[in-house]
Amino acid sequence: MGADVQNEPGSIKTEITRVVRDFSQYLSCLQQMGKISLDISKKSEDQINNWGNNWGTKTRIQQPFFFEGPENANVFIIDSEDNFFKGEGGKLLIKILGAMNLTSGSVFICNTGDLISVQKKIKIISPKVIITLGKKAGQFLLNIQQPLEQFRGKFHEYHGIKVMPTFHPFLLLKQPEYKRQVWEDMKQVMALVMELAGSKDGS
Questions:
Q1: 170 CB neighbour count, 10 Å cutoff
Q2: Which of 16, 17, 125, 181 lies most in the core, judged by the most C-beta atoms within 10 Å?
Q3: Do the Cβ atoms of 186 and 166 come closer than 8 Å?
């Protein structure tokens, strides 16, 4: 009977309430004694700081790192998703690349699974330009917390390489009105690649 009662939602809630109340009384007692800080381990401190990030949200687990494409590509794409060229979003990305005189086989593309792996690939490939697709990818590489609307459409820099953050093709399927903005972003990318290729040929 005891085990059954302990596992009931009402019992669990009561137990949590009791623990919180006891802890509050403990903190109050410390405060009365003139102690206003707690000596806790680094592990406990990290758990407390991340408490709100793990309640009601997906647990932050490192995602697998996926990539494909040639390691001499001029264009490096970081995708917020893992599907790349699959599905309706993937088909639209292929169309966008086609309009840029690129193919899915001529660009290097990866997901945001592991920042260290992405950084290593960028260093190996040394592309002329990096495109980030979607908010997650842009914030991931550039360490920006702003909404994508506030930093897309203009070049940023990552270790001397120009980075163009833009909307993800999946968004364009839901909200086609953003297609024009993405195309304006991609025109800037094309102009930069041509400029860099021209300066290399002329040197």
A1: 20
A2: 125
A3: yes
